[in-house]
Specification:
heterodimer, A: 305 residues, 13 helices, 0% strand, flat, B: 494 residues, alpha+beta, 18 strands, globular, disordered N terminus
Chain lengths: 305, 494
């Protein structure tokens, strides 16, 4: 297990390097630069800015410098925010997205699994149909429709909850709900399907024959194997939730990673784009590793060497 | 069941915290929306309008602006211009202090201005100090002759120099840690989140500042800002979405005013259709329909580049474009033409309307629309590589008519058309150095006619500023520069 983990960790490095190289080339290939502004700058000012940020050097030198800085944990200066480094910007935005993402994750898993289990035990009955209709809606209706509707209803019409920002715990309710909804819906459907599969298994019949209550049966014996497909879905889902939802953060005006990502790409803030891509890909690769390791915990047949 | 209990507990926990933290806000506190996150709140490093809004509250230049956007005495209480109009002597107010209580001197202005033009600052607004003479070693000819006197020497008489001085980039700079000399000081700043300012007790007019706390919240999405205003969390918005403009039936909260900005189509003059064709294209545009029916937010039709609200823009404001010689007898334009514009809701609607106007006027001319991401458009504009026309706009940094004609100066950075006319360059240089208002007006008019006769650009309409201002906020004055320092606002008792 340990050897497997270590070898997987080592294999992460070339993956990340390749991601960085591709991102670096792509952002530099995009037309328009970080200093193209509404207030057009004279050519000599453009040149001065290019030199100040090292953009006048050949691309491979720039990439080398960037990797050199990265080795020391320095993601470079932001091109758009002259007072801030990329480390500071990500450091400011990451906790916001992490908090929002974890809350959404908890809400999604709790509501999603509860709904999924309930639907599975009440298969083809009214509860099942209602829950699965809600879940299907949650998956099909995109966040940019759900979120403004929530704002319209709860913030503007009823005035129960604030429309944007994150300054008090009240502010979290709408974005967390909007962010959790599709994940919860997905989890519910996955759990329902795999639960139904598991409930048909021989070992469940045996357990039932031994006279176990259906509550023990479901929670103790059926849930664990039923979670395997959910876990493999949750790995990337956690990465997506934690690294910030682009849409939700824009709509609720939350200063998190998702909004930063959009803005950095639009502003051609090269270093910030790079920093965020590195963060996101590292998160994704690590979470996938964790998911693989969790299989061994959930399924006794899986062994890593 | 345990899961449900946890959720209920969690929800209760959230509710509990909410009550303890969301105290009713103090009555002398307001929240203002910003159109983007300010990239910097350092006056010399700042680059955008959103930053300038915040900096206006934090810093005060030698001159500053009142609620109507007019120039008034700021840190300087008086100034004199030498007989040859090349030297200004500014007297600072007595007892000026930074926000930490330390003395503010004329040297702090020298420090700020020196930083603005320094190479490694790479400041966007360094050109504001272009009229100031440089010494032989490249320094600014700005001298603090004593702690309260600043002597500025110009290369030539400059009509708009005092207007420039109210720009936040020309704020003084404290040595060491950031300090503020404006009506407010910084309480909290996050590059992407909200910015909180508190009243600066050391500001020379602190007694007249009614609002104690100002919070700026950046909104990239105008709809989000609108929702925040409607739900009561924002008192003043930075704009009003087009989609809700007509439904905005409460005129006491909607504030629109002419704004010093012009929208125009720029031809690529390196490879442009003939002047006659350009004139025909311009003549076929129904600007009234464009501003009243298509955009409909109070924009003014533009037949020239200088907006009606400009301070010295007492030029005859013609309601018809001047015709180019030979346009009456010319045959209709044919062929193909592309109109490039930056992706946005308003731009798309305007471009489609223009296309339709041209199609019905000249059936043989085919105009294609090409929308592009803003920065792609800017890079093409800078490189001069676009074909046909490009939708551009220009917003003045300060209130002077010459700013609008200078975008066609042959070496101007904003000159995307590539238009180069030596006569215009000479005229513009003369306008800059002429301080007699009547003479200046004649020159401005001559330059405007010269441009109109060649049609390198087609003016479309003038911007309006658009804000939603909560009814509890008083002291808001519409003005063409769209500056609204928080120090002049106050709250009404509800």
């Amino acid at each position: 297990m340990l050897r497997y983990t270590l070898s997987r960790l080592v294999s992460v490095i070339p993956t990340l390097l390749l991601v960085m190289l591709i991102t670096f080339l792509l952002v530099h290939a995009a037309p328009g630069g970080p200093f193209d502004n509404e207030r057009t700058l004279p050519p000599e000012m453009q040149a001065r800015l290019q030199a100040a940020y090292g953009l006048d050097q050949p691309l491979w030198v720039q990439f080398g410098n960037y990797i050199g800085g990265l080795m020391q944990g320095d993601l470079g200066p932001s091109f758009r925010y002259p007072q801030s480094t990329v480390n500071e910007l990500i450091g400011d935005a990451a906790p916001v997205s992490l908090l929002l993402g974890s809350l959404a994750f908890i809400v999604a898993v709790i509501f999603g699994s509860a709904a999924g289990i309930l639907a599975a035990i009440r298969q083809n009955r009214a509860t099942d149909h209602v829950l699965m209709t809600v879940a299907m809606t949650g998956i099909s209706v995109p966040a940019f429709v759900v979120a403004p509707l929530l704002v319209l209803l709860f913030a503007i019409t009823l005035r129960w909850l604030p429309a944007s920002g994150l300054s008090t715990p009240w502010h979290f309710i709408l974005p967390v709900f909007a962010l959790a909804l599709p994940t919860a819906a997905y989890v519910a459907r996955l759990i329902r399907a795999s639960m139904l599969e598991v409930l048909k298994g021989q070992f469940i019949r045996t357990a039932r024959a031994q006279g176990l209550s259906s509550r023990t049966l479901v929670l103790r014996y059926a849930l664990k194997p039923a979670l395997i497909p959910v876990v493999s879905y949750l790995g990337p889902a956690v990465a997506a939730l934690l690294s910030g939802s682009v849409v939700i953060e824009q709509i609720f005006n939350i200063p998190g990673l998702g909004r930063l990502f959009i803005q950095s790409a639009l502003n051609r803030d090269y270093t910030l784009v790079m920093g965020l891509v590195i963060l996101y890909s590292t998160l994704l690769v690590l979470l996938n590793l964790i998911v693989d390791l969790l299989y061994a915990v959930l399924d006794p047949r899986v062994r890593y060497r | 069941m345990r899961a449900y209990r946890l959720v209920i507990l969690l929800a209760l926990g959230l509710v509990g915290c909410g009550e303890s933290e969301s105290n009713p806000e103090s009555t002398s506190s307001i929240v203002r929306g910003l159109s983007a996150a300010p990239e910097s709140i350092d006056p010399q490093l700042a680059r955008s309008v959103a930053s300038a809004v915040v900096l206006t509250d934090l810093y005060e230049g030698l001159l500053t602006r009142n609620a109507e956007g007019q120039i008034i005495a700021g840190a300087a209480i008086s100034w004199e211009l030498s007989a040859d109009e090349r030297q200004y002597t500014f007297r600072l107010r007595e007892g000026l202090r930074w926000s930490d209580g330390s003395a503010l001197t004329a040297g702090d202005f020298v420090r700020g201005w020196t930083m603005l033009i320094a190479d490694d600052t790479a400041a966007f607004y360094a050109d504001l100090l272009n009229p100031v003479r440089r010494t032989s070693d490249g320094r600014l000819a700005v001298e603090a002759s004593d702690d309260a006197t600043l002597v500025v020497t110009l290369t030539a008489p400059t009509a708009d120099f005092l207007e420039r001085l109210a720009h936040p980039a020309l704020a003084p700079r404290a040595s060491g840690e950031a300090r503020y000399n404006g009506a407010y000081q910084l309480e909290q700043y996050a590059p992407l989140g909200s910015i909180t300012l508190l009243r600066n007790p050391y500001f020379h007019a602190a007694d007249s500042v009614a609002i104690v706390r100002v919070e700026y919240q950046p909104f990239e999405q105008e709809q989000t800002e609108y929702a925040a205003f409607r739900s009561g969390t924002v008192d003043v918005t930075s704009r009003v979405p087009r989609a809700v403009f007509r439904q905005e039936t409460r005129p006491d909260t909607l504030r629109t005013a002419p704004y010093l900005g012009v929208v125009y189509l720029s031809f690529n003059m390196r490879d442009a259709p003939s002047a006659v064709t350009r004139c025909q294209l311009s003549a076929a545009i129904d600007r009234k329909a464009l501003t009243e029916t298509i955009i409909g937010r109070g924009e003014q039709p533009a037949y020239g580049l200088i907006p009606p609200g400009v301070a010295n823009g007492v030029l005859p404001f013609e309601s018809r474009m001047q015709a180019v010689d030979g346009v009456d007898s010319a045959s209709q334009p044919t062929g193909e033409l592309t109109l490039h514009y930056a992706t946005s809701d308003e731009n798309r609607v305007v471009a489609a309307a223009l296309q339709e106007m041209w199609r019905s006027a000249y059936p043989d001319l085919k105009v294609t629309l090409a929308n592009k991401e803003f920065r792609v458009l800017l890079s093409e504009s800078r490189a001069g590589t676009f074909d046909g026309m490009m939708r551009r706009s220009w917003v003045a940094d300060y209130n002077d008519a010459s700013q609008f004609l200078a975008i066609l100066k042959s070496d101007a950075a904003a000159n995307s058309s590539g238009f180069a006319d030596a006569r215009l360059d000479t005229l513009l240089a003369a306008i800059d150095s002429t301080t007699d208002p009547a003479q200046r007006e004649r020159l401005l008019h001559a330059a405007e006619q010269l441009i109109a006769a060649q049609v390198p650009v087609i003016p479309l309409y003038f911007f309006v500023s658009k804000h939603l201002v909560a009814r509890r906020v008083a002291g808001w004055q519409d003005n063409p520069l769209d500056v609204h320092p928080s120090r002049f606002l106050r709250l009404l008792d509800e």
